[in-house]
Amino acid sequence: MELIRGIHNLRPQHHGCVATIGNFDGVHLGHQKILQQVREVAARLRQPATVMVFEPQPREFFAGDQAPPRLSRFREKVERLAEYGAERIVCLQFNNRLRQLTGEEFIQQVLVEGLGVRHLVVGDDFRFGCDRAGDFHLLEKMGPEKGFSVEHTHTFLMDEERVSSTRVRTTLASANLAGAARLLGRPYKIASRVVHGRKLGRTLGVPTANLLLGIRKPALNGVFCVLTRLHNGLLWPGVANIGLRPTVDGVLPALEVHLHGFEGDLYGKPLEVFFLAKLRNEMKFNGLDELKAGINQDIQQSLQFFRQAESSWQLERPWPNSSLDHLLATAPL
């Protein structure tokens, strides 16, 4: 897979592709169906399967802090797109210059001169260009004279409802982790590296691995039972808080994971945190003593959850089963 940042980095050897365009936030089953559609045409035309995405996402550009939370960070998105068959990912910076292009200019400058697209797969409600004036009908009209064909994506339904990033967010917000996994085709996770924090957890006798999430608000908030895949591939049970940490006046969203019975140095190591069941919402405690008591109660509830799920599991040992599906809850515990 090749990642190209900016249309100015497209070279003559990049000319020619079968492409699709979108946010692909979460790379859910609907997105995976689109990628399959692109791969099939790309194989027939002997062209690279290409995905165009934007940073920031258009709604983030226009709505700022009011934009919906992201389901995945950019790096995770790229990894999932590659996993499902994208051979080339082109990321364009969404800025005033790009948003001011007319529909015709977007087609000529981006699709024709930039990508040299041979075939385009987009939703029939796809809009682009200044004031969203460009649409599927404009692509159909200009495609033949510009040397490319266009087809609309196949809507993917589950339980007679369209699978979308919005639906995944709503499902996660209701703490239906099993439902979100069905829509995504995999359990929901967040991946990042462990960074040095304020060491408050260690002071309270509850050491945590701290993962920064960037400036975007996460799709989840609260305290969860989690399984964490360590850098060595082992799965380790734990309890995690994701949010702003109001008791200690947190500013940026963070993910703090306490691994039950784990001893070792994780600083700088990559972790994958799988969310299984919600224990409670994030709350502000009246001081550190009350915070410590709340954390210890969360730990006991989490331990009870894992022991009920797998009676053979022992504290200070990794999780004995690689399957996560039977652990996923449909509502808060």
From TrEMBL:
Keywords: ATP-binding, FAD, Flavoprotein, FMN, Kinase, Multifunctional enzyme, Nucleotide-binding, Nucleotidyltransferase, Transferase. It is an enzyme of class 2 (transferase). Belongs to the ribF family. It catalyses: FMN + ATP + H(+) = FAD + diphosphate; riboflavin + ATP = FMN + ADP + H(+). It holds the Pfam family FAD_syn. CDD domains: FAD_synthetase_N (cd02064). Transmembrane segments: none annotated. One of its GO terms (molecular function) is riboflavin kinase activity. The keyword Secreted does not apply. Catalyzes the phosphorylation of riboflavin to FMN followed by the adenylation of FMN to FAD. One of its GO terms (biological process) is FAD biosynthetic process. Residues 183-307 form the Riboflavin kinase domain. NCBIfam families: PRK05627.1-2, PRK05627.1-6, ribF. Pathway: Cofactor biosynthesis; FAD biosynthesis; FAD from FMN: step 1/1; Cofactor biosynthesis; FMN biosynthesis; FMN from riboflavin (ATP route): step 1/1. This is Riboflavin biosynthesis protein. PANTHER family: RIBOFLAVIN KINASE (PTHR22749:SF6), RIBOFLAVIN KINASE/FMN ADENYLYLTRANSFERASE (PTHR22749). Its EC number is 2.7.1.26, 2.7.7.2.
